[in-house]
């Protein structure tokens, strides 16, 4: 059986960036950090940060520039204090490599920001494709297709994991099975996606040799 490779989204999937972003945006609104307010923001950021900033600016009468500055400042802090690795991520990354597969990343982040997160958290991936390098953003499948071509992978041997409907749509458009990492209490419309509640659920999607580390080594 062919080894399974994974194309990962980065923020919100491999790295748990959302809590800090949500709190930063609520503070920029000069609102209390209540569960209700954080949930309101979470419903928007799980679509995209740009969507959240646009909607919140109109809803609260706060300049978009103020919200964008809060978001950018949060990303800047990750240079010295990265957001935490998502629970289960290291275990799945290791299982994919143990089975001979590749861990690949397709992200909207600029390369410097993405590599800073990966390096700061000591997350070893095999390749990284960033939209600002000249690729259209998801749900366009260009980044996924580039990774398939670059590594001569068959789409049927690849999973694509992300936390937003656009991640799933991009994967499906490339012929790859899309897996949606769900956020509790945040409903997302992603037809055809395999839904998981945590990254360790991915271990059940890997061939037995990859799950137990007895698969072929690269």
Can you describe this structure?
This protein is an alpha/beta fold. It has nine helices and six strands, in the order βαααααβαβαβαββα. It has helices at residues 18-28, 35-45, 49-60, 64-77, 89-98, 111-120, 142-150, 165-173, 208-211, and strands at 5-8, 103-107, 127-130, 158-162, 177-181, 194-196. Strands 3-2-1-4-5-6 form a six-stranded parallel β-sheet, sandwiched between helices. The protein is globular. The chain starts with a strand and ends in a 7-residue tail after the last helix. The relative contact order is 0.18.
Spatial strand arrangement across the major sheet: 3-2-1-4-5-6
Overall average pLDDT: 93
Count every helix, treating DSSP H or I runs of 4 or more residues as helices. 9
Class per helix and strand makeup:
alpha/beta
Low-confidence stretches: 214-218
Strand content: 5-15%
Number of strands: 6
The secondary-structure element order is EHHHHHEHEHEHEEH
**Overall 3D form:** globular
Task: Using the CA coordinates, give the radius of gyration.
Answer: 17 Å
Helix content: 40-55%
